[in-house]
Design a protein that fits this description.
The structure holds two protein chains of two kinds. Chain A is of the alpha/beta class. Chain A has a domain of about 80 residues. Chain A has nine helices and ten strands. Chain A has a six-stranded mixed sheet with strand order 6-7-8-3-9-10, with helices on both faces. In chain A, a hairpin with a 2-residue loop joins strand 9 and strand 10. By secondary structure, chain B is mainly α. Chain B has a domain of about 200 residues. Chain B is about 70% helix and about 0% strand. Chain B has 14 helices and two strands. Chain B has a two-stranded antiparallel ribbon with strand order 1-2. The longest helix of chain B is centred in the middle third of the chain and has 27 residues. The two termini of chain B are about 20 Å apart. The chains are: A alpha/beta, B mainly alpha. At the A-B interface, helix 2, helix 3, helix 4 and helix 5 of A face helix 7 and helix 8 of B.
Chain lengths: ~240, ~325
């Protein structure tokens, strides 16, 4: 497996507040990398830095051999970075089909006519086919999260960034999402998945990374990461003694 | 499978549309002067409403500075025809192009701003133009300019120009919304960061929208001042133009193509009827707008559309067919 994403000592700050004070890691092609950490650990900020919504003040992000550190979000999307949002951000005035069409046409650089079949395929994949002409504003939370994934898939991503897609869902719904990620993995797509549901992270990821105050606490095999005393102390509040 | 072209109700809609347009083209031959003037204003305000709706209703750019382009259109026509002898029709087009160039410059400054900041910045720009034009001798300073070439021109000529421009604005908006650019515009309006991370270039998309809107708004400004024969800065760059556009869109239905058409008819009717009450007319118009916002927040046609799913000139994309009416299954897979 080759390295598809290389993060080299990135520093991210909002004004004077440093959220990520230096973070490095690599992601291999086709891998599912889980990212965990307590609230305020900088997980979503990392996601925003990867997608281009915030620009690191220092360090480099190399995606598929290209330095994307200062690249705009839409250019990163064209290169193959797709994302979902923790709180879904559907285009509410559009139908499910139109939402995904945005990603499938703009993101993947296709004409609308050429994007349509890919768009329907992405909608089918996430199980929203029956609701393809429903307005996004009328969807349930689970369906909105599915729509986020479909829209990102429409962009034909090499890496899919999932930001807490299981948050707020019932156990059965979480299982649905987990199954979907497992299915996506078979297509060879690389996934970086931020999540708080530990069981899901351990079951669905190849590597698990724990962040604490923007720094890397542990990176490795999911079970090994979860068994790490430092991770348990910081993340789960379990004292060694 | 039904297609858009083959759909019976669409054929009926098309026939009704053709009859209405034909009647409007024939109006000057049977209508009185007042009726012709009334509809001429309606057509101009349809264009103005469509362009404001394009910015605010589809691109999420709430502009308070549409009067910039009305004024540019009026003055371009006056300067080009008076000083350089340019024919009026060409003057309208060149005025549109000048407005478009100005909009490109303004976009680089103003599109960095969002929401209220964008709105206020556009307004300030228009106010600055009043000061500039009122002190500029070349354009007659505060007294403004007569457009000599318009003298003696029959009202019916300006009526036809206005009708054609109104039709063109509606057609452009419909085609724009059904294009990839329109898809990107609506995405930006609904959520700009999600649109950006889905591959939409926000600046470029908004810039194109500003360019189209400024071009057509300027032509409408030129037409209006053709009918007035005289253009002066305090009226040409007045906020009233934007207020009219907002009223038309709010009443008719923001984010709908047919809304500004209905809104323009209501606005011109009320404006003519309420003119006898002087300054109070604006208060009455304001109260009407507030009532519509309270009881039908999406405007008349927007509310009808929400409640009954009835939409005229829809830009909605259907998952099972293309805009050409061709079912999606029939698309040539070799092109994929």
């Amino acid at each position: 497996m080759s390295t598809i994403l290389k993060v080299e000592d990135i520093h991210v700050a909002y004004g004077r507040i440093k959220i990520i004070p230096g973070l490095s890691f690599e992601v291999q092609e086709g891998q599912v990398l889980g990212v965990i950490g307590p609230n305020g650990a900088g997980k979503t900020t990392l996601m925003n830095a990867l997608i281009g919504l915030v620009i690191p003040t220092q360090g480099k992000i190399i995606f598929d051999g290209v330095d994307i550190t200062k690249m705009s979000p839409e250019k990163r999307c064209h290169l193959g970075l797709g994302r979902t949002y923790q709180i879904p951000r559907p285009f509410e005035g559009m139908t499910v089909f139109e939402n995904v069409l945005v990603g499938a046409s703009y993101g993947a650089g296709r004409t609308e006519a050429k994007a349509r079949p890919y768009c329907l395929e992405a909608i089918k994949k996430v199980g929203l086919y029956e609701k393809k002409d429903v307005l996004a504003g009328q969807l349930t939370l689970l369906d909105r999260k599915r729509l986020e994934i479909a829209r990102a898939l429409g962009t034909n991503p090499k890496i899919l960034l999932l930001d807490e897609v299981a948050a707020g869902l019932t156990e059965a719904e979480v299982q649905d999402v987990q199954d979907l990620v497992a299915e996506l993995k078979t297509t060879g797509i690389t996934i970086i998945w931020i999540e708080h549901v530990i069981k899901t992270m351990v079951e669905s990821t190849d590597k698990l990374m724990c962040l604490s105050t923007g720094s890397l606490l542990k990176y490795g095999d999911p079970i090994e990461t979860m068994n790490c005393a430092e991770v348990q102390e910081v993340y789960l509040g379990v004292d060694e003694e | 499978m039904k297609t858009l072209v083959g759909d019976k109700s669409n054929i009926i809609k098309f026939i009704i549309l053709v009859i209405i347009i034909a009647a409007l083209f024939l109006l000057p031959s049977w209508g009185n002067q007042y009726t012709v003037m009334f509809f001429m204003l309606v057509f101009m305000y349809i264009g103005l409403g469509q362009m404001w709706n394009l910015l605010a209703g589809y691109a999420g750019l709430v502009s308070l500075g549409q009067q910039i382009f009305i004024g540019i259109g009026g003055y371009s026509l006056a300067v080009l025809s008076n000083y350089y002898g340019v024919p009026l029709f060409l003057g309208l087009i060149i005025g549109g192009l000048i407005a478009m160039v100005i909009s490109i410059g303004l976009s680089y400054l103003l599109l960095r701003m969002k929401g209220m900041y964008f709105a206020v910045a556009t307004w300030i720009t228009a106010e600055a133009l009043i000061v500039i034009f009122a002190g500029w001798k070349f354009v007659g300073s505060g007294n403004g300019m007569f457009i000599y070439a318009v003298r003696g021109m029959p009202t019916s000529t300006i009526y036809y120009y206005s009708l054609i421009v109104a039709i063109i604005t509606v057609i452009i908006v419909v085609f724009l919304l059904r294009s990839k650019l329109g898809l990107g515009l609506i995405a930006i309006r609904d959520n700009d960061s999600a649109a950006e991370t889905s591959g939409v270039n926000i600046f470029k998309t908004k810039l194109y929208c500003m360019m189209i809107s400024s071009f057509l708004t300027s032509i409408i400004g030129g037409l209006f001042y053709m009918s007035q024969v005289w253009v002066q800065p305090y009226a040409a760059f007045a906020i009233n133009w934007t207020i009219a556009g907002m009223f038309i869109v709010v009443i008719g239905g923001i984010g709908t193509v047919a809304g500004p058409i209905l809104g323009a008819i209501i606005y011109v009717f009320l404006n003519q009827y309420l003119a006898q009450f002087g300054g109070i007319s604006m208060i009455i118009l304001g109260i009407i707008a507030i009532l519509v916002i309270l009881f039908a927040s999406k405007g008349i046609l927007g509310t009808v559309q929400d409640k009954f799913g009835f939409e005229i000139l829809s830009a909605r994309r259907h998952s099972d067919r293309t805009f050409t009416g061709k079912p999606i299954e029939e698309l040539d897979s070799s092109n994929l």
